[in-house]
Amino acid sequence: MTLQRTFTIIKPDAVKRGAIGDIIEQFESQGFRILAMKMLEISKSQAEQFYAVHAARPFYGSLTEFMSSGPIVALALEKENAIADLRKLMGATDPAKAEEGTIRKKWATNIEFNAIHGSDAEDTARFELSFFFAGYELAK
Ligand code: UDP
Ligand code: MG
Questions:
Q1: What is the DSSP letter of 81?
Q2: Residue nearest to atom 19 of ligand 1 (CA)
Q3: Does the global pTM surpass 0.70?
């Protein structure tokens, strides 16, 4: 497997709970290289664009409200098998179903306020990375 890039967001709930340092520590100790990172707030309409794939879902309104409710930390990560390995480290969307040792098991409150976002495939990773980062912002 060659090196792969993925995209992650430490969500507003996790930032508010003081989990930034712990989560970044887990990325590094699990072998992810940080290519880019920034803390920012996004607007509701930016959250709507980012989560456009979920526009028809019943939780779209509350999700985009939540994602624009406070600071987030966006990161570009690289490792072999990064997309699947990040999803594994994150744990299930619903923390009640997340495995021990996962970020969501440790930090998520419920299925909505679940601490972290991670790309789910190569095409979504490409879209999400380019949504938040320009090419020149990524480490060589
Ligand atoms: N979400 C929600 N209710 C649900 C399912 C998802 O509020 O029933 C939120 C939750 O924050 C989740 C995000 O919508 O992380 C995107 O959902 P997805 O199914 O893509 O889950 P993920 O890929 O984040 O595990
Ligand atoms: Mg998803």
A1: T
A2: 93
A3: yes
